[in-house]
Amino acid sequence: MNKNIIEKLIWSIALPGFGQFLNKKYFKGIVLLILEFIINIQANFNQIIIMSFHGEIGEAIKHADYQWLMFYPCLYFFSIWDSVKDAGGGKNPISSLPYAFAAFFVTVGLIFSSELMIFGVLFGPVWLPMLFVIPGVAVGLISKKIINRII
């Protein structure tokens, strides 16, 4: 990846829509940013992030609106993929696989975040989904590699 693509990727990680603005895709950027704010507010996401960082996992679980929070992973990883694609990276359709699998795995992590304990620790609606990014990206990269060999 060239520096231009990495810059768009990093800004999209910071906030959905920012990579689109840098790509001069202003309408997409505005739509993604508005969706991010709506989902963030409706899900109480900032509040549960703060609680999670303070170790108040039980309170974070109580305050999370999972019906809204479930939209966030797809919005987030779509925004990242879209900004990378528009910056010239990943023109091949299967290049989206790591992003799509990350969104899927993070969503699954979110579904189980209020009850799944790892080594006796409840990670909650912020930390467990973040941990699930790793296997999601790994499965996506492996799938991409397998499909590239077949094609």
Fold blueprint:
Blueprint: H1 3-14, H2 18-22, H3 26-43, H4 45-53, H5 57-63, H6 66-69, H7 72-86, H8 97-111, E1 117-118, E2 121-122, H9 124-131, H10 133-150
Antiparallel strand pairs: 1-2
Helix pairs in contact: 1-7, 3-7, 4-5, 7-8, 8-9, 8-10
Protein name: TM2 domain-containing membrane protein YozV
Organism: Cytobacillus eiseniae
Transmembrane segments: 30-54, 66-84, 96-112, 118-142
Task: Write a short abstract of this structure.
With 151 residues, the chain is mainly alpha-helical. It has ten helices and two strands, in the order H-H-H-H-H-H-H-H-E-E-H-H.
- Strand content of the residues, in percent? under 5%
For the largest beta-sheet, the strand count, sense and barrel status come to: 2 strands, antiparallel
Secondary structural class:
mainly alpha
Largest sheet, order of strands side by side?
Answer: 1-2
Helix content: over 70%
Quote the average pLDDT. 94
Order of helices and strands: HHHHHHHHEEHH
If helices are DSSP runs of H or I spanning 4 or more residues, what is the number of helices? 10
Low-confidence stretches: none
Transmembrane segments: 30-54, 66-84, 96-112, 118-142
Keywords: Membrane, Transmembrane, Transmembrane helix
Protein name: TM2 domain-containing membrane protein YozV
